[in-house]
Amino acid sequence: MRTIIASMAALLFTFPLMSHAQAPRAALEEAASALGASNLTSLEFVATGAMFDTGQSAVPGQRGPQFALKSYTRSINFETASAQTDFERSRAEVRGGGAPAPRQIQVV
Fold first, then answer.
1. pLDDT tens across 29-44, in order?
2. Alpha carbon distances (Å) from 72 to 45, 49, 55, 64
3. What is the pTM of this model?
4. Contacts of 33 (CB under 8 A, 6+ apart)
5. Distance, CA of 102 to CA of 105 (rounded, Å)
6. 103 with 85: CB under 8 angstroms?
7. How many CA atoms lie within 13 A of 96 on its CB side?
């Protein structure tokens, strides 16, 4: 009996909240106009951090080789439908084999 009463109370409290929700499309369009996204032609992300690659890890049971990202830049141009990724990384672990990690530039 207690679960039935709790279920009914939850439904009664939920329905009023649903009726006051905004239309999702209108909310997204309002946010896009506030940000000026309608005039957006390109994006660029710049970051540093760490990344892991596939391969044998230095310690059994852990992830693959870790690399320290010295620089990472991702550029996306919506007018030309193109993207470019430029990153430079170095080995974070001193143990293990494999080729050195050169700078990479990927263009689509």
1. 888 888 888 888 999 9
2. 8, 9, 22, 20
3. 0.58
4. none
5. 10
6. no
7. 19
4 DSSP assignment: H
Domain residue limits, the chain:
1-38, 41-108
Q: How many residues are present in the chain?
A: 108
CB 65 within 8 A of CB 52: yes
Amino acid at 29: E
Residue 82 structure tokens: 């193109």
DSSP-based three-state secondary structure for 28: helix
User: Is residue 88 a contact partner of residue 69, using CB atoms and an 8 Å limit?
Assistant: yes
Q: What is the pLDDT of residues 29-87, one digit of tens each?
A: 888 888 888 888 999 999 999 888 777 776 777 777 788 889 999 999 999 999 999 99
